[in-house]
Amino acid sequence: MPSPMFPDHDQWLAPHHLLQMWHGFEVTLQLTAIAVVLSTLLGLVLAAARSSGNAGFRLTAAAYTSLFRNTPLLVQLLFWYFGVPALFPEGWMEWFTASDHPLALTDAFTLPWPSFEFLAAMVGVVLYSTAYVSEEIRAGIRGVPHGQTQAAAALGLTHAQVLRHIVLPQAVRIALPTLLGQYMNILKNTSLTMAIGVAELSYTARQVEAESFRTFQAFAVATLLYVAAIAVIESIGLWRLHTRLMPGGTGRR
Q: Residue 41: which CATH number?
């Protein structure tokens, strides 16, 4: 008699259901990778604006951070998916949802045009995550010794050059452990995009559960995939910390 904790082989998910979930996991990884890259780049700009001597830049960046940090991601996703298209001129939605204009990276390599659900999810997750990433980078900026900024200014560097060449590179290294924590949050936050129809891992797990009536198995597989992805990000952080603590590592220079 099979154990309740270890069902017999007939109770495992069918191969096509596992493949379906793997495709959902690929969408999760794609959305996470795009959000990590874009939120980091935008976060650098936002953190620089928060540290700028221009009051207008500081106030604008502070308002952005406050707006996106103090509203739920789910509400923002629904806004980008349902609210913003209502403001589009006639014909825009047809263009966004059409698949006859692939992204041509080279003459021989093109990518299919993403669905509007994916585009709305990407915008929502990126803009939301940027507010958090920028604060981690700003904390890293405060960790850079002020004497370095003064020395660079004494050498004739402008404020923008000091940020670009001296402050921001060090700030990113200082903030890397907490940034990796934000990247883990981005991976987990992608699960909310199922609310607007993105066929990511949580969405496909729900579909498989509805088709197979194997709730435990479907969500167990989804959980294991999430844990594996988080473990990879955490391993990168531990490796980076180990290299910084080693004699001669970048953290000792």
A: 1.10.3720.10
